[in-house]
Amino acid sequence: MSGRRTALALALGVSAAVGHVIYPLALDAVARRRRPAPVAVPAAWPPVTVLVPAYLEAGVIADKIDNIAKNGYQGEVETLVVADGDAETARVAEAAGARVLHLTERHGKSQALNKGMAAASHELVVISDANSELEYDAIGYLVSALLPEHNGAVAGEKLEGTGGELAYWRFESWIKRNEARLGTTLGLDGGLFAIRRSAYEPIPTDISNDDFWIALDLMERGWHVGYEPRAQMREETIGSLKLSWERRTRVLGGGLWVMWRKRAMLGPASVLDSRRRAVATQVWGHKLWRSTVGPLSHAALLGVALASARRSRTARLFLAGHAVAGAALVAQQHDRPVPLPGRIAAQVLYLQIVAFGGMRRCLRGDRVLRWDKPAR
Asked: Which residues contact 44 (CB under 8 A, 6 or more apart)?
């Protein structure tokens, strides 16, 4: 490569690595200096509402209610199922012993959460998806972590996937753990988290990414979002590539819209306030750069490599790595065995491609508030 092209490739490589390499490593280096605050066991366990938004979940909702009842929480537990335009799920949930809020028309998950939070009987609310299986005492771990007065919400831990997908969730957990050590994390997951009812503000009607909106909204208003890795839940993997693509591009596109709505948190005022500066750094490093500038830089770097392939061995190796990752991705979709390094490479490549799908959906205004999903 010429000197100018080498400098361009280096700059693009650094930019592409910010979200997945540079930010996580820098975060880890800073967080290592902080000891995690100990989580105290309460002298008396407060009452808690477990809120389950549900649509087309008649086949799993009874097991979910049983899972909550047997989770080992030592205080009072109210299980509140919000059946979002789904009479059959409402009927099964009521028969299984839950309190049911039946919405006769479908509103979408964000608005179902608004109605459920308004109806919850207790200050501390655990929110969990109908298909999420809680590990024993997950509720207790979340409640203990939520009790410090500065915490508005606490994220749980997702156990999902195999190979590259499992590696991705472990990577996310590492980032959440380090962010939480520094005070607060963006990493709420709708499958399992706890929140104070008094800290909750209704989600706007144009928001589909409820968990990301809740985290940013709390942080904007001065609350901390904690992380409790012992509060664990399991979910089945997403499934086919078609379902995965639909869900991931929808989530990413919706997340970009959330960041646009909350763009004041990323503006010049954030630089002058240490707390807001820390939040802005998390948004840029954990979410925004990884979803936009990083993938665009990666694509441009591929272009530079293609233009330099005849003269540069490094460029040829870079392109060959992408070819291997692409082949591994295709093989996985045909249920062929792929070694772990190939599965991880395929996952990274797939997430970069998904970013373009998410950007396209955001720019088109494709914000699906009531998405199609298979009945469970």
From this structure: 75
Residues 134 and 224 sit within 8 Å (Cβ to Cβ): no
| Residues 131, 64 share a domain | yes
Match 């537990």 to its residue by tokens: 77
Classify 202 as helix, strand or coil: coil
**237, 254, 282 - which closes a domain:** 237
Average pLDDT score over residue span 324-328: 91
What is the domain extent for residue 376? 1-33+240-376
Please give the sequence-ordered ranges of beta strands (E in DSSP) within the chain, or none if there are none.
Answer: 48-54, 77-84, 99-103, 124-128, 133-134, 151-159, 192-196, 224-234
Per-residue burial over 254-279, b if 16 or more Cβ lie within 10 Å, else e, is bbbbbbeebeebbeeebeeeeebeeb
pLDDT, one tens digit per residue, over 331-365 is: 887 878 888 888 888 888 888 999 999 999 999 99
- Strand partners for 155: 193, 227
- The answer to whether position 306 is within a domain reads yes
Going by C-alpha positions, the residue among 118, 126, 122 that lies closest to residue 145 is 126
Q: Of 206, 237, 268, which residue sits at a domain end? A: 237
